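ESCALATION

Customer reports they have been waiting on this structure for their group meeting. Please prioritize. Original submission:
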Amino acid sequence: MTRKQARIGLVISLLAWITASQQAAQRPIDFYNDPVTAFFLYFGPLIALVFLVLSFVGRKDARASAIDANHRILSDALRRGDTPAVAHAERNLGFLYTEIGALPVAVGHTVRSVAMHNEFGADTEADLDWLNHQRQLMGEPAFSGCVRQHLDPEAADALLTVIDSRPDAGRAPLADANEPHWAALASIEDFGENLRKETPPPSEAEHAELLAKVKPLLHPGDDRGSWSNPDGGFLAEATALLATRPLDQEWDQSATTAAELCRARNEGDEQGAAELRRLGEALGEQGGRWFMVLVAHRASVLDRRVRVRDFEFAWDGICGWEH
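Update from on-call: job pushed to the front of the queue and completed.
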């Protein structure tokens, strides 16, 4: 149970207890005549206490976990001087803070993401879409003021001009902010690792059942990510959990090979890097983007010396995969 769910349960149980107490003041209440009211009259405080404890010790909701994961990525990337990883984390945090309504914070992250992606020639369309959406939610004066807090006057004017000149200025981004696509807004690696830490590994029977549900959703050449694939949120979680146990023999062999080639690439082996990319293309043709994600997760579990993040860079541009 998440902390948010526990807080909702706490409020409901307290309201039920208060209502039952008011009724008890007007007439006798017993389990025979009014079992529901009697139950909340006598056990409501205990239920509320349980929910109160869970509101502090329960797991964070997925958006909060994704935000924490991206802040860890950001800190690590800043320490390593990994500019692309910093920009990626800034972009994710801009998306996530927008979804939870922390708009001034969101604008700061998205503005930094635009600046950094633009600096090394990467695509900034997603950031500009979300800046449009943030401006729509905040209102023009507040949004412009927030942008100017993070850029010098000349750069702020240039960015605001770009946003104003876009044909879709003022429209929300294509991904609905209420859509459950937050799962993939953290990097695939950190979301998966965070989920595996918080979620007990599936039993052998649960693993087999989950694998049976995933297989029909893996389509050759499918490049849809979490935003455009209606099953994206489920696949983001399922692929991370499936990696904790052996997959089909052929799939596990692919994961083992991927881990070996990835390790060679990380050590500067150009031939290994080329073979790893060819493997990614073959996996994409076999089962699409989410099959590649599954194999990458499994490879990182089989060999702790490689990370899913390594595959994000090695397979960039294949079946919609991007670092």
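Sent to customer with the following note: Residues 270-302 form the longest helix (33 residues).
Escalation resolved.
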